[in-house]
């Protein structure tokens, strides 16, 4: 396995573990100080590690029982692509939520993310036809 492929796999595994732990400061440590993080293709990107940490602090505080999985689609010398899935319940409820998406991650030579783009969708409570047909 090439060094770049292993670096991406290591980063993705750390991202998943830290997502499940709910620790926003640990999540932020995976990103460069000047990271550009696109939450979706339609929103302005978050810029900088502090903005990423603030995003995860707010997002993870509203989630319980987080389960994150990811599968590498392709690692390359300068970027990696992965399919991910995240299931959780909203804090204070039993409402299951499932999100799935694709992410493109650019790492620097030390294995820190400098650029992340993601495209994703979510199945929320109230979308009964969809929830019935999934394992959320």
**What class, by secondary structure content?**
alpha+beta
Radius of gyration: 15 Å
Q: Summarize the biggest pleated sheet.
A: 6 strands, mixed
| Relative helix content | 25-40%
In percent terms, what proportion of residues is strand? 35-45%
Separation, N- and C-terminal Cα atoms:
33 Å
Q: In sequence order, what are the helices and strands, one letter per element?
A: HHEEHEEEEH
Could you explain the architecture of this structure?
Helices cover 31% and strands 42% of the residues. It is α+β, with helices and mostly antiparallel strands. It has a six-stranded mixed β-sheet with strand order 2-1-6-5-4-3, covered by helices on one side. A hairpin with a 7-residue loop joins strand 1 (31-38) and strand 2 (46-47).
Give a brief description:
The chain is of the alpha+beta class. The protein has helices at residues 3-21, 24-28, 49-61, 128-132; strands at residues 31-38, 46-47, 63-75, 80-90, 96-107, 113-123. Strand 3 and strand 4 (80-90) form a beta hairpin.
In terms of topology, how is this protein built?
Layout: H1 3-21, H2 24-28, E1 31-38, E2 46-47, H3 49-61, E3 63-75, E4 80-90, E5 96-107, E6 113-123, H4 128-132
Parallel strand pairs: 1-6
Antiparallel strand pairs: 1-2, 3-4, 4-5, 5-6
Protein traits:
136 residues; alpha+beta; 6-stranded mixed beta sheet; 4 helices; 6 strands
């Amino acid at each position: 396995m090439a060094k770049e492929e292993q670096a991406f796999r290591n980063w993705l595994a750390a991202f998943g573990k830290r997502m499940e732990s709910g620790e926003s400061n640990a999540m932020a440590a995976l990103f460069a100080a000047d990271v550009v993080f696109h939450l979706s293709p339609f929103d302005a990107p978050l810029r900088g590690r502090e903005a990423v940490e603030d995003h995860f602090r707010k997002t993870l505080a509203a989630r319980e029982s987080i389960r994150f999985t990811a599968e590498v689609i392709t690692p390359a010398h300068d970027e990696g692509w992965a399919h991910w899935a995240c299931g959780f319940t909203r804090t204070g409820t039993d409402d299951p939520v499932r999100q799935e998406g694709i992410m493109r991650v650019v790492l620097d030579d030390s294995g820190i993310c400098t650029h992340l783009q993601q495209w994703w969708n979510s199945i929320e409570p109230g979308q009964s036809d969809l929830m019935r047909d999934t394992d959320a």
